[in-house]
Task: inverse folding
């Protein structure tokens, strides 16, 4: 996704680029008010651990605080657990090879050596996906529950830091802002998230703003806000093998100091975005929980 050794833009050019990306996120943030209200209503009743992560994401909540004040009957909560378990068992069963690779050309499928190569590649893929460090099974289950509750799920597939391999991470919908292209495909994602000063220094090193460096020495667990923008690389140079030749550009921006702290690219889109059902002209999905929300409210009142 990025390389700490890459030179970053400096001076007015860097300030302008960082400011533009922050302003674009601000526009998406303001545009999503109705969704946040809707998702909060759902979370309060069937996904209590997410209850305050849409409306008050900019405010730090106390870890371990009680969040099920709106829950008087657990039917909805249990139903969401079952929804996630059913999708997992039907679509991605952990004890089965639930997909296989094959060439597009049917003529190649008749070649034994080709079939063996694809079978080996498929086995390697499953081995990497279900490696302990990849954490796929648990994160995929969280994505299914997000799909059932909110209608949209986001799974980030990235390199495993410090070693070779993959790392899967379900990204909470409160952090993710989506943009579609003209065909309705998600091709741009902005993630607004928090990291402690210690985490930021570990990830971005000396590229961190001076304010974070100073805090990291004495208050390493203080949290700061960052953006991760992934977009189509409009300045792509296909012949290049570095990030400038990749399909998608990647920028990490520190809100503190309005600074780009890392840049890079991806050959394929790193955010796997799923939508349960879409209304016309909407980038986010709608969920089964939205259909039964009136019944859940009535049951709670009773």
Result:
């Amino acid at each position: 996704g990025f390389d700490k050794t890459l030179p970053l833009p400096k001076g007015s050019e860097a300030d302008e680029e960082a400011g533009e990306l922050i302003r674009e996120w601000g526009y998406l943030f303001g545009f999503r008010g109705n969704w946040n209200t809707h998702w909060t209503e759902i979370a309060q009743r069937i996904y209590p651990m997410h209850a305050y992560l849409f409306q008050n994401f900019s405010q730090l909540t106390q870890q371990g605080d009680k969040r099920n004040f709106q829950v008087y009957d657990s039917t909805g909560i249990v139903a969401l657990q079952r929804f996630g378990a059913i999708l997992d068992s039907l679509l991605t069963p952990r004890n089965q090879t639930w997909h296989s690779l094959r060439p597009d050309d049917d003529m190649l499928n008749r070649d034994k050596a080709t079939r063996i190569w694809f079978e080996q590649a498929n086995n390697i893929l499953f081995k990497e996906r279900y490696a302990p460090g990849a954490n796929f099974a648990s994160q995929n289950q969280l994505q299914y529950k997000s799909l059932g509750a909110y209608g949209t799920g986001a799974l980030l597939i990235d390199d495993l830091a410090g070693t070779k391999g993959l790392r899967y991470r379900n990204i909470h919908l409160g952090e993710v802002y989506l943009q579609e292209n003209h065909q309705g495909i998600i091709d741009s994602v902005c993630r607004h998230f928090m990291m402690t000063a210690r985490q930021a220094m570990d990830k971005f090193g000396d590229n961190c703003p001076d304010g974070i460096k100073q805090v990291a020495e004495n208050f390493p667990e203080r949290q700061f806000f960052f953006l991760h923008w992934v977009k189509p690389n409009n300045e792509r140079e296909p012949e290049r093998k570095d990030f400038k030749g990749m399909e998608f550009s990647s920028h990490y921006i520190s809100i503190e100091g309005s600074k780009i702290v890392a840049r890079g690219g991806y050959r394929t889109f790193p955010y796997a975005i799923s939508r349960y059902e879409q209304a016309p002209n909407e980038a986010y999905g709608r969920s089964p929980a939205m259909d039964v929300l009136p019944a859940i409210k009535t049951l709670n009142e009773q």
